[in-house]
Amino acid sequence: AAINAMAEAHRAVLGCLGDPETESDMQMRFLDQARLVAQAVGKLVGDCKEVARSCSDPDMQQQVINASKDAAASSSQLVTCIKLLGPTMHSPLCQHQLME
Fold first, then answer.
1. What DSSP character marks residue 22?
2. 8-22: string of b/e by CB count within 10 Å (b at 16+)?
3. What's the confidence (pLDDT) of residue 44?
4. Which pTM was predicted?
5. Distance CA 93, CA 86 (A)
6. CA-CA 20 to 30 A from 55: which of 10, 17, 49, 77?
7. What single DSSP character describes residue 17?
């Protein structure tokens, strides 16, 4: 919920700067793709749990668990970044600021 509020505030700031409405269809496609990645990683994490349960080596088991946690955290960060940066991706004003 907090990330959605931040994204809305971000869009409001862009509006105050005189930035035209960005391409929302493109933003939604990016967000949809990021969500698909997150869903796929969720399935991967489930598979990793099964692998970890069947692993007899405790060190290997922990490596599998840690790798699945890292993957889950990364996919969550991807979705968050897309939500926050989506409105700026096609903004000439924001692109100019990034290039400076």
1. P
2. eebbeebeeeebeeb
3. 94
4. 0.67
5. 14
6. 77
7. T
The angle formed by the CA atoms of residues 52, 55 and 59, to the nearest 5 degrees, is 85
Q: What is the pLDDT of residues 60-98, one digit of tens each?
A: 999 999 999 999 999 999 888 888 777 776 677 777 776
- Residue 34 is classified by DSSP as H
Q: What is the pLDDT of residues 12-26, one digit of tens each?
A: 766 665 655 545 777
Element containing residue 93 per DSSP (H, E)? helix 92-99
**Of 19, 5, 11, nearest in space to 92 by CA:** 19
State the amino acid at position 89 in one-letter form: M
- Tokens 């290039």 -> residue: 99
Token pair in block for residue 38: 């997150």
d(CA 81, CA 89): 11
3-state secondary structure of 56: coil
d(CA 85, CA 11) in angstroms, rounded, equals 10
DSSP assignments along 48-75, one per residue: HHHHHHH---HHHHHHHHHHHHHHHHHH
